[in-house]
């Protein structure tokens, strides 16, 4: 088990047969907020159809979007694509007012993979993980901390955690991994 | 720990994702025109404090972030309904009928 | 060894002997034994002393309801647990067990003198004895009660074990893995549901384990258990043993405590000792069976006296005979079968004493075939034996008259007063109970939760009834969840069904006032106590309970409540349902603190938020303090400085050269949209319309009650975009409040909010050298005073990082705050730190920040305000846009009380001796010579020693304070009265010249 560095150096934190946890490399991440009527126009501008069901996700090339609320989306893409995204939004702002706010440095993301992934999440997340369909996600809570959970596969997840809460959440995840490995 | 149906997420989810936000249907008087002391006092402080079905607000703070309304029985802790902010206040008699 | 063990019988593993110690002596048993079964196998019945009278006690039962056999267990260093129930604790080699509540030894105990003083310790003893004089409380009564109170010894070391917790979601949760629970789980899982089956015992089976003669669908009971569990597992059922359902909460949330390592001699170090499960089930099936009641007669608590069903369990589950020479005293058929099993195993049954005049024919036949003497229509009226029962005194009862006594020698007495459905969890849900007159017990009635009760829990008796009811309830649960389920009917042979009657105390020919006829064994409550309580005016069962402490021990009266109710009802002359039952509350059985704490200890105790610069502060010796959930550097001591020394140096350096401060914890909110400025106008007191992009303003946030909620500097980045800062502690609440107004009051506004607190690291540079230090690193902006005056904001590049640069000051010195993405925070800090060396830079912490701002009269919301302070009170009414039609708090400020005279207002205080530092929170009075209680007119909110001013300075909230400037107030302290002058709040550079460098 690797220690989490204060700088959040990406890399594997836990490896094992039951579950593996890695701190992922940073991505460009934005909060997008707008009114329902403007969803088509913004979708066209950024090149991704914004999903409207809360928890639903959409992908296009490097862009990934999750609908977090009726007027709120989280968009992430690689750093090179972020300027395109910012410019595309700026270009339509006058006609289609919205809020695009850079939050790239706000969160860090860990990946959780392995047959024990669901059990591991159940140490802190009160949601019924079985009910989160593959390819969807949600904003939820992990041990009292707001997080965004992405389900990428049956046993593959990502968890976005606000930077200052990450040592607490990741520390608990590591403890959970040791516990799962001992069983 | 309760289960709460979020009318925006259309899911019934653990209470830990939600925050209580006081009594519902208390509109802020438009203060740009004169409002009596009594009216303002009522808006700030006077609450029904019912024993039984209570119209109240919750926020899905660790979820979609929306404030919404609910009717919860303060005796049994059961929710009779949750509904979106801005929607009409449901009639209690209809709710009680439905909950049977 | 194991003189009372029957080789080949029971479910212990005879190939794995286990040795443990009991009060230092080695005792041997087998894997699968509990402490009690192993002790009984060695003929040891004496296991502890009772709570109040220190009477010798042995195990009364074989399960978690045990009131007597409570022991201390030690598993290793720091791993001591008092009051472990010996009847459920499994043994392993090396386990150390000690008896409790005795001194100097279990067989000779000085406290037993209490037993001889029995007549003095009546119900309500504490209330009656420790009444007066009042002065005795502290010195005499309380120490006495404290030393006498409590059972067992609290552990004195830190608990080294790990504890865990999980959430679990399941369609059907079945509680209890006896015949009803197994059948229910089978029905529900065959219907295709997610099923969880829990049982507090180490293995599934419940009663079936004690009834091995049962044949189910042609399969012997034990084999049926094995094949059923195997099928359940193959159907995906989560079968959890050693797992107690401790509480049943709203909407089918059930708390489970799973014991993972207490039965292991060398558990994996990463394994938690216990795991708390928070289970959410769509349907719950309570299949918890029934608990046997004792009979109430003089001496029913002597070691060797035990419940008949438990003796049967010790025999069939552990292969242990509880004695060689038994008398059975019963009012229920079930004890006859226990007698038959023991007789068949070689125990001499002296007699079956049945309180009923005419026992069932087949029972009589069974007894006769075993040559057991039958005494029907008899009462038990006493027992003899100091540390173990030696004989029982019995009398015939004819037409209510108690006849002449007879004494029967014995080494154990098996009693049964009938069975009580286990409805504790049902009671947690506030489910209603109904009195069943035939069975003389309460049964479940109206339900409040989505649950079913199966088997003996709802008064059904016998294996077949339990199995078929369990199967039916499993099917009901499945159908409720829209599944197709079939009602399995089981074919059972050798079932032992039976009935019984219920009693108060058994009739006696002796003085009942002298009888030690125990109802609550754990709290030493007798039938006499209950009757006395009623005589003394306790007419509600809740009062009787508290006056006598009946049912108030850690077993919550599992064995005693029904007997207690019967006796209280009899004494009151009312039927039982009119008297009512006390409420059971979670947890079902005593649960360790560790299980509730779970992961939240040590490093995981609570969230500690750290800034991107925290690691630098740590490496550089910062002393931290918690500020809301953050830890912040409080000061940076050098060369052994104390806090005062460090703060003094940091203040001086910042005022004379430059200081840097990690302000990353400030809350930040990005406000974007065409209505952003309108939103700002409505939200904050200040006017925003004329604030030009590139400028900042101090923003003041009120509640609609007119009181100060928050403040911070707010920058306008463009026409439609603001960068708000909030106080550290209120960031989340401010965002919540803004969302509330936006979502529910001002839905017309096109404006959106995003928390950017953690996106930005914020470094504050303050001091005359701040610009010199920063200037070389800034690209894209001239930061001279002309080009970038005080209260400016710009997006630029600082040291190569994208930045939002504020010209702002919370110290009164020339100041800048550089915001860069958090990932670059530490790098920028290091760059500025290195470059700052030539300008004599220091890092300063929150303590210096507080001093510097106080010197300048800047308030801290939450320290100098307390939720009852208006902008006028705080002396910052200049921040109110008086011409705005509305803003949050505008109408509130006009409330009569908020404009009345005599409000507490923020003022400065200077102690008249120029040296004394006031204590924050100290109270102010106008006349130090007035009699006590004095009229207090305010309190000190902030107080520091100020080097810049050359004396201590303070703020206070003082009644009518603004009009008292120049007057003297007094601060009475234990050491004497301090006098202080009331002043304005700005102590340093009142013209603000230093800001404009």
Task: Give the tags.
heterotrimer; B: 100 residues; alpha+beta; Folate-binding fold; two-stranded antiparallel sheet; 2 helices; 6 strands; 17% helix; C: alpha+beta; Ubiquitin-like (UB roll); FAD/NAD(P)-binding domain; 6 domains; 26 helices
What is the gist of this entry?
Chain A has about 180 residues and is α+β, with helices and mostly antiparallel strands. Chain A has 2 domains: about 10-25 and about 105-180, Gyrase A, domain 2 (2-Layer Sandwich); about 30-100, Heterotetrameric sarcosine oxidase (Alpha-Beta Plaits).
Written overview of the protein:
The complex is a heterotrimer of chains A (183), B (100) and C (997). Chain A is an alpha+beta fold. Helices cover 22% and strands 35% of the residues of chain A. In chain A, the strands form two sheets. Chain A has a six-stranded antiparallel beta sheet with strand order 1-2-8-11-10-9, with helices on one face. A five-stranded antiparallel beta sheet of chain A has the order 4-5-6-3-7, covered by helices on one side. Chain B has helices at residues 37-45, 92-99; strands at 3-6, 11-14, 19-23, 53-59, 67-73, 79-84. Chain C has six domains: 17-117, 2Fe-2S iron-sulphur cluster binding domain, sarcosine oxidase, alpha subunit, N-terminal domain (Ubiquitin-like (UB roll)); 163-290 and 421-485, FAD/NAD(P)-binding domain (3-Layer(bba) Sandwich), CATH 3.50.50.60; 295-416 and 502-510, FAD/NAD(P)-binding domain; 517-573; 667-853, Gyrase A, domain 2; 856-995, Probable tRNA modification gtpase trme, domain 1 (Gyrase A, domain 2, 2-Layer Sandwich), CATH 3.30.1360. Helices cover 23% and strands 28% of the residues of chain C. In chain C, β44 (801-807) and β45 form a beta hairpin. Classes of the chains: A alpha+beta (183), B alpha+beta (100), C alpha+beta (997). At the A-C interface, β7 and α4 of A face β8 and β40 of C.
């Amino acid at each position: 088990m690797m220690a989490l560095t204060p700088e959040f150096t990406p890399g594997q934190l836990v490896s094992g047969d039951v579950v593996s946890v890695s701190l992922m490399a940073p991505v460009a991440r934005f909060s997008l907020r707008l009114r329902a009527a403007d969803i088509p126009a913004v979708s066209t501008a950024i090149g991704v159809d914004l999903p409207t069901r809360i928890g639903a996700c959409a992908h296009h090339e490097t862009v990934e979007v999750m609908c977090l609320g009726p007027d709120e989306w989280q968009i992430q893409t690689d750093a090179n694509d972020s300027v395109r995204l910012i410019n595309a939004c700026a270009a339509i702002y006058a006609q289609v007012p919205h809020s695009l706010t850079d939050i790239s440095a706000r969160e860090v993301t860990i990946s959780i993979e392995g047959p024990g992934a669901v059990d591991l999440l159940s140490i802190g997340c009160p949601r019924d993980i079985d009910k989160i369909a593959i390819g969807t996600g949600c904003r939820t809570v992990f041990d009292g901390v707001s997080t965004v959970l992405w389900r990428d596969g049956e046993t593959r997840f990502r968890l976005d955690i606000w930077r200052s809460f990450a040592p607490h959440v990741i520390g608990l995840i590591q403890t959970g991994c040791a516990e799962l490995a001992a069983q | 720990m309760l289960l709460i149906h979020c009318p925006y997420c259309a899911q019934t989810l653990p209470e830990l994702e939600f925050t209580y936000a006081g009594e519902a249907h208390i509109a802020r008087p438009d203060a740009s025109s004169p409002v009596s002391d009594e009216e303002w006092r009522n808006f700030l402080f006077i609450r029904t404090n019912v024993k039984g079905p209570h119209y109240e607000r919750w926020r899905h703070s660790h979820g979609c972030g929306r404030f919404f309304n609910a009717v919860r029985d303060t005796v049994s802790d059961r929710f009779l309904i949750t509904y979106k902010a801005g929607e009409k206040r449901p009639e209690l008699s209809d709710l009680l009928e439905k909950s049977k | 060894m194991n003189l009372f063990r029957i080789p080949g019988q029971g479910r212990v593993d005879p190939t794995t002997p286990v040795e443990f110690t009991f009060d230092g002596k080695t005792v041997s048993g087998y894997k699968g034994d509990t402490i009690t079964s192993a002790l009984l196998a060695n003929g040891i019945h004496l296991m502890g002393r009772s709570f109040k009278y220190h009477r010798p006690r042995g195990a009364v039962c074989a399960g978690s309801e045990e009131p007597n056999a409570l022991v201390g267990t030690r598993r290793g260093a720091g791993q001591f647990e008092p009051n472990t129930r010996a009847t459920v604790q499994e043994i392993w080699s090396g386990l150390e067990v000690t008896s409790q509540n005795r001194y100097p030894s279990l067989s000779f105990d000085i406290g037993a003198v209490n037993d001889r003083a029995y007549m003095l310790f009546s119900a309500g003893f504490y209330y009656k004895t420790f009444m007066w004089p009042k002065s005795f409380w502290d010195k005499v009564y309380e120490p006495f009660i404290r030393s006498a109170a409590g059972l067992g010894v609290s552990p004195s070391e830190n608990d080294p074990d790990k504890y865990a917790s999980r959430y679990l979601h399941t369609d059907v949760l079945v509680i209890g893995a006896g015949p009803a629970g197994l059948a229910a789980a089978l029905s529900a899982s065959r219907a295709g549901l997610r099923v969880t089956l829990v049982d507090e015992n180490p293995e599934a089976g419940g009663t079936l384990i004690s009834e091995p003669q049962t044949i189910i669908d042609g399969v012997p009971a034990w084999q049926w258990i094995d094949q059923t569990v195997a099928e359940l597992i193959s159907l995906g059922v989560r079968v959890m043993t050693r797992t107690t359902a401790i509480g049943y909460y709203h909407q089918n949330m059930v708390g489970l405590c799973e014991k993972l390592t207490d039965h292991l001699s060398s558990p994996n170090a990463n394994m938690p000792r216990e795991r708390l499960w928070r289970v959410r089930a769509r349907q719950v099936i309570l299949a918890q069976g029934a608990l046997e009641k004792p009979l109430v007669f003089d001496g029913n608590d002597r070691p060797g006296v035990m419940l008949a069903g438990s003796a049967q369990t010790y025999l069939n589950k552990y292969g242990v005979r509880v004695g060689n020479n038994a008398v059975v005293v019963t009012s229920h058929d079930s004890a006859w079968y226990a007698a038959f099993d023991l007789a068949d195993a070689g125990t001499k049954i002296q007699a079956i004493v049945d309180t009923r005049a005419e026992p069932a024919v087949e029972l009589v036949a069974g007894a006769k075939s075993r040559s057991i003497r039958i005494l029907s229509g008899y009462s038990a009226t006493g027992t003899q034996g100091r540390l173990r029962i030696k004989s029982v005194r019995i009398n015939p009862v004819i037409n209510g008259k108690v006849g002449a006594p007879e004494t029967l020698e014995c080494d154990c007495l098996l009693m049964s007063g009938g069975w009580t459905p286990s409805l504790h969890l049902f009671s947690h849900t506030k489910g209603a109970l109904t009195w069943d007159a035939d069975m003389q017990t309460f049964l479940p009635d109206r339900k409040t939760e989505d649950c079913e009760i199966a088997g003996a829990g709802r008064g059904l008796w016998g294996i077949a009834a339990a199995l078929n009811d369990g199967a039916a309830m499993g099917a009901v649960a499945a159908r409720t969840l829209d599944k197709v389920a079939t009602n399995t009917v089981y074919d059972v042979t050798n079932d032992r069904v039976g009935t019984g009657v219920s009693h108060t105390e058994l009739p006696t020919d002796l003085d009942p006032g002298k009888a030690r006829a125990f109802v609550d064994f754990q709290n030493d409550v007798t039938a006499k106590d209950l009757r006395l309580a009623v005589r003394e005016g306790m007419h509600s069962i809740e009062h009787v309970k508290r006056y006598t402490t009946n049912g108030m021990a850690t077993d919550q009266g599992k064995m005693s409540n029904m007997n207690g109710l019967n006796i209280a009802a009899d004494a009151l002359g009312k039927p039982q349902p009119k008297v009512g039952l006390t409420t059971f509350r979670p947890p079902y059985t005593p649960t360790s603190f560790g299980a509730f704490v779970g992961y939240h200890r040590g490093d995981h105790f609570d969230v500690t938020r750290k800034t991107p610069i925290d690691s630098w502060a740590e490496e550089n010796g910062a002393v931290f303090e918690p500020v809301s959930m953050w830890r912040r550097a409080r000061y940076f001591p050098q060369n052994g400085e104390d806090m005062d020394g460090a703060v003094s140096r940091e203040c001086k350096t910042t005022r004379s050269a430059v200081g840097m401060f990690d302000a990353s914890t400030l809350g930040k909110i990005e406000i974007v949209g065409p209505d952003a400025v309108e939103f700002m106008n409505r939200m904050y007191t200040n006017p925003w319309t004329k604030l030009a992009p590139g400028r900042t303003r101090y923003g003041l946030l009120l509640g609609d009650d007119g009181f100060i909620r928050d403040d911070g500097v707010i920058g306008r980045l463009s026409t439609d975009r603001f960068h708000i800062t909030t106080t550290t502690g209120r960031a989340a609440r401010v965002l919540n409040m803004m969302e509330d107004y936006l979502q529910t009051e001002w839905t017309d506004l096109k404006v959106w909010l995003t928390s950017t607190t953690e996106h930005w690291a914020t470094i504050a540079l303050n001091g005359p050298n701040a610009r010199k230090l920063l200037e070389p690193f800034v690209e894209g902006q001239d930061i001279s005073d002309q080009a970038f005056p005080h209260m400016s904001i710009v997006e630029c590049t600082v040291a190569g990082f994208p930045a939002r640069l504020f010209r702002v000051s919370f110290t009164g010195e020339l100041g800048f705050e550089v915001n860069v993405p958090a990932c670059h925070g530490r790098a920028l800090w290091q760059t500025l730190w290195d470059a700052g060396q030539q300008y004599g830079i220091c890092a300063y912490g929150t303590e210096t920040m507080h001093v510097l701002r106080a010197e300048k009269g800047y308030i801290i919301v939450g320290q100098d305000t307390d939720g009852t302070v208006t902008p006028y009170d705080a002396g910052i009414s200049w921040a109110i846009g008086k011409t705005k039609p509305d803003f949050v708090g505008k109408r509130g400020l006009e409330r009569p009380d908020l404009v009345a005279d005599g409000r507490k207002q923020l003022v400065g205080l200077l102690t008249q001796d120029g040296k004394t530092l006031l204590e924050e929170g100290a109270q102010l009075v106008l006349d130090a010579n007035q009699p006590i209680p004095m009229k207090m007119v305010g309190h000190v909110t902030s107080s520091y020693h100020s080097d810049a001013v050359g004396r201590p300075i303070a703020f206070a909230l003082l009644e009518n304070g603004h009009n008292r400037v120049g007057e003297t107030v007094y601060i009475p302290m234990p050491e004497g009265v301090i006098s202080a002058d009331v002043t304005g709040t700005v102590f340093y550079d009142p013209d603000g010249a230093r800001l404009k460098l």
